[in-house]
Design brief:
InterPro entries: UCP022079 (IPR014518). This is DUF2150 family protein. By secondary structure, the protein is mainly α. 69% of the residues lie in helices and 0% in strands. The protein has one domain. Helix 2 packs antiparallel against helix 3 and helix 4 crosses helix 8.
């Protein structure tokens, strides 16, 4: 059964998450807050996983899959209207993590699967970040994401754990959500307590 246009993810769904974050006390150090933020991230990754899965299954042509990905990306990466500066920062962190998820999915649909092992790609991304070549770093992370999408390759924990705090670590965090979504694309309910 094919999914109608715009049904993979909606602006209303994203807004429900944002309103929930606005209404709660958010402290990323607290388990409930951390879970809420992870659910927000995972929920988007699941939508992306469903699009690439439908593309793989032949339910979406490449052009339509890219349009769907762009639609979700525009919703999720749009500026968020939250007055609380700290909450805005944590949502921005989630958005930053998801940037790589979108690039990986688009790369997968448009260009196929990277040949290099995931560990090599993440190490190359880390080296590019150290050289302040962020375009290359994002490119390597996106290529690692294509491996996760294609063959459900796992993120190598030893490499991930060694990452310095920075954009590559955040992008890999997004890929971790993508990995979970590819293996278990169950919808995260916004009103889960």
């Amino acid at each position: 059964m094919s999914t109608p246009p715009g049904e993979y993810y909606t602006a209303e769904r994203w807004q429900n998450w944002i309103e929930r974050i606005e209404s709660e006390d958010i402290d990323p150090e607290q388990e409930d807050s951390a879970r809420l933020l992870l659910n927000l991230q995972d929920d988007t990754a699941i939508a992306v996983a469903k699009i690439v899965t439908d593309y793989d299954d032949g339910e979406l042509e490449a052009e339509r899959a890219l349009e769907e990905l762009e639609g979700v990306r525009e919703i999720v990466l749009d500026d968020v209207a939250i007055d609380d500066e700290e909450k805005l920062m944590v949502v921005d962190g989630v958005q930053t993590s998801l940037v790589c998820v979108f690039y990986a999915a688009e790369e997968y649909v448009a260009g196929g699967v990277a040949e290099a092992p995931i560990a090599d790609l993440i190490e190359a991304a880390s080296e590019a970040e150290a050289e302040e070549n962020m375009d290359a770093a994002l490119g390597y992370c996106a290529q690692a994401g294509t491996r996760i999408i294609a063959d459900e390759a796992e993120l190598p924990r030893d490499v991930v754990d060694d990452l310095e705090f920075g954009l590559v670590a955040e992008w890999v965090n997004g890929l971790d959500s993508l990995q979970t979504a590819m293996s278990d694309p169950e919808v995260v309910e916004e009103d889960e307590e």
